[in-house]
Design brief:
Structural class: mainly alpha
Largest sheet: none
Order of helices and strands: H
Number of helices: 1
Region (Disordered): 1-24
Distance between the termini: 18 Å
Number of strands: 0
Radius of gyration: 8 Å
Biased composition (Polar residues): 15-24
Helix content: 40-55%
Shape: globular
Strand content: under 5%
Length: 24
């Protein structure tokens, strides 16, 4: 899911892997 900004408030375990990839 990369259709919008990541919501750290409602971050899911699956999103963590995706978010980590977006972080430099």
């Amino acid at each position: 899911m990369e259709a919008g900004p990541v919501q750290w408030e409602n971050l899911d375990v699956s999103d963590v892997s995706t978010a980590a990839t977006d972080v430099p």
